[in-house]
Amino acid sequence: MKRLFCAFAASVLLMGLTGPAQAQYTFTTIDVPGANYTRASAINGFNEIVGWYEGDGFRDHGFLLDADGSYTTVDVFGSSQTRADGINDSGQIVGEYVEAISALSHGYLREVDRSYTPLNFPGAYQTFPRAINDIGQVVGTYTDASFCCHGFLRDVDGAYTTLDAPGATDTYVFGINIVGQVVGTFSDIHGDHGFLLDVDGSYTTLQFPRARLTYPSGINSAGQIVGTYEGEVGMHGFLLDVNGSYTTIDVLGGYDTEAVGINDAGQIVGSYSDGKSPHGFLATPN
């Protein structure tokens, strides 16, 4: 778990389970032209999508896909790798980059004018911003000197707050909505668990029914949550609706679907494999 989310990373809800959601969505594949692989990570209310792709030389680059279908590469100057993880309705983008000299990961905020601001949790070894909401609050994960992972919130005034789930040995934060609800994953002596951190400070464990592992990663203003779970065979995306029902989301004909981001219209982005390499996808409700 720590390797997955930190290297370049209460009550249990057991709700009703529904079947795969192919019929409920229209799926569109997202591939950056000429890329070895593409992963989509977030979508805003204007259908702008961000993610990252592998180009020549096995280097990762962030990308912005506009609603008109045009791609823009997002690269932090002086980095060996860049990923774009979150975007809000203002067009602000957050993500992480690997510094070419130190090989350490740092966070960044990219403004609409394409200027960059460093985002680094004070005193952290590495910082991984994952999402930004429409008022500019940023959440993500940082590692300390002991290589333990902690969630964080960066408020609009620039102040940082650590977010650690109760009893967790490691906490990973991936999503935040406009009201300040946060989703992520934590590890304890029993394994890995998904969670929702509500505005009153309470943590609720999220568990896809009968899944081995559950990784919530995105939440919209209505409180709909998307993420990925590990089933008996492979990884599958899921939607947790506001009524408490879970729906499996699998790209038809694909393998290992991961649902990562959701906007207020219910459009979902993520990635899947065709058996050879990952591709991004957009799932639009029918």
Which features characterize this protein?
286 residues, mainly beta, Neuraminidase, five-stranded mixed β-sheet, 1 helix, 26 strands, 2% helix, 54% strand, globular
Q: Report the sheet-strand fraction.
A: over 45%
Using only CA atoms, what is the Rg?
A: 17 Å
How much helix, percentage-wise, in residues? under 10%
CATH level 4 superfamily: TolB, C-terminal domain
Number of E-state strands:
26
Looking at the structure, the CATH topology is Neuraminidase
Average residue pLDDT? 92
Examine the secondary-structure arrangement and name the CATH architecture. 6 Propeller
Rounded to the nearest angstrom, the distance between the terminal CA atoms is: 34 Å
Structural class: mainly beta
Please state the overall shape, judged from the principal axes of the Cα atoms.
globular
Low-confidence stretches: 1-5, 7-18
Q: Order of strands side by side in the largest beta sheet?
A: 1-19-18-17-16
Which CATH first-tier class would you pick? Mainly Beta
How many H/I helices? 1
Q: How many independent structural domains?
A: 1
Largest sheet: 5 strands, mixed
